[in-house]
Amino acid sequence: MNSPTQRSLSLLRSRGYLVDVVEHWNAFARRRVDLFGVADLVAIKPGEILLVQTTSYSNLWARREKISTHENWLAIRTAGFAFHLHGWKSQAQGKRRIWSCKEEILCDPDPRTYAFERLPDGEPLPTSGETLQGSYTESPKV
What we know:
The protein is built from three helices and nine strands. The protein has a five-stranded mixed sheet, with helices on both faces. The chain has a two-stranded antiparallel ribbon with strand order 2-3. The N and C termini lie far apart (about 40 Å).
C-alpha cells in the first residue's frame, strides 16, 4: 500500500464504507481526471455519500484551494454530499514508518458544518430554498 489513495481506501473500508476509486487516467491528455474535477474516491454507507480528495500532507493546502475555487464546488456542496480531504504523512517510529491521516471535513450535508462559508464571488451561502445561479437549490433537511 503505497499511494495516498490506497491508504484512504483502506481507512474508509475499516470504517464500514463501501468505497471505490472514481478518478481515472486520460491517456489522450496524459493526466488523471477526478470525479467532478475534485474527488478521488466515493464512499457510501446507509444514509451517507462521501466524496474524498486524497493527497500527501504537504499538499493539503493546495488541494483545499483547488477544491474551494473549482467551478463544481457549489453544486457538490448543495447536492447533499459529504466531502473530506485526506492528507497522509509518515513518521519514523524506531525502525518502522507509521502513516497518519489528517482528515478535514470540507462539506457536510448539515449546512451548519460547512468549512467554506462564502461563494466564490464573496456572497454568503444561500439559505434553504433560495435558488443558486438559477439551477441549484438546497433541499430542506428532513
